[in-house]
Amino acid sequence: MIPMGKAFIATLGFESSAILRLVGEKGVSSGDVIYLVTSKIPHPRVENAIKSVKDFIDKVSPKAFVKTLRLDENRLEENIVTLAKLLKTVEEPIVDVTGGPKGLSLALYLAAGFANVGKVYITTETTGERLEIPTIQLPTYTLTSKQLEILKQLPNKLTKIAENTKTSKSTISKQLKQLMSKGLVYKENKTFCLTLQGKITLSLIE
Q1: Distance, CA of 81 to CA of 205 (rounded, Å)
Q2: Three state DSSP letters for 160-202
Q3: 3 state SS of 125
Q4: Which of 52, 3, 10 is nearest to 29 (CA)?
Q5: What is the rounded CA–CA span in Å between residue 134 and residue 87?
Q6: Residues 55-92: tens digit of each pLDDT
Q7: What is the DSSP track for 45-57?
Q8: 78 vs 62: CA distance, rounded Å
Q9: Which residues contact 95 (CB under 8 A, 6 or more apart)?
């Protein structure tokens, strides 16, 4: 178990300058952790960027930790869940989405919203200015056991959901309307499906 101090979580591509600058300004000390989120497909320039971060941390604070998370950028939903769960374990994480593949930067930004992180950092390519970007704060819903049971049945038609949950169609219809009003479910050709928010919410609960 890695002792936790401050936690930096940053997407990383070919360049490490943005995260190094952020770490240098915020400071790093014993027990702090720097998570580098990068593609699972190896690339020599990415490996050099990871090495430069590790070398910098070894010099300024040898008892801090550098961890690398290698993700498939094509798995947006899965990556949001993975990163949101990580963010939820950290108090006031420092998040930077400047580097790395666009898909991973998007996943980390959205994950920050699901984890109730108020802002992320991004460094502009043209001026090198670092900006604080507010996250999209998603409402937290209290779901009943019946609503959770319904969510786990999707995608499905109303009649099939009622059969599988041994519940009347009128009750299921009412519950589905409530879930749709919360933005967790949508209807398409008589089939009820989970929205992205619904999928992430269900994954984080399970």
Answers
A1: 10
A2: HHHHHHCCCHHHHHHHHHHHHHCCCEEEECCEEEECHHHHHHH
A3: coil
A4: 3
A5: 16
A6: 999 999 989 999 999 999 999 999 999 999 999 999 88
A7: HHHHHHHHHHHHH
A8: 32
A9: 8, 9, 10, 87, 108, 112, 117, 119, 120, 121
Q: How confident is the model at residue 4 (pLDDT cuts 50, 70, 90)?
A: low
C-alpha to C-alpha distance for 33 and 10, rounded to whole angstroms: 11
Environment class of 183 (CB within 10 Å of its CB; exposed 0-12, middle 13-18, buried 19+): middle
Which residue shows structure tokens 């690398």? 68
Can you list the alpha helix ranges (DSSP code H) found in the chain? 17-26, 44-60, 76-88, 102-114, 145-151, 158-165, 169-181, 196-205
Ramachandran angles phi, psi of 203, nearest 5°? -65, -35
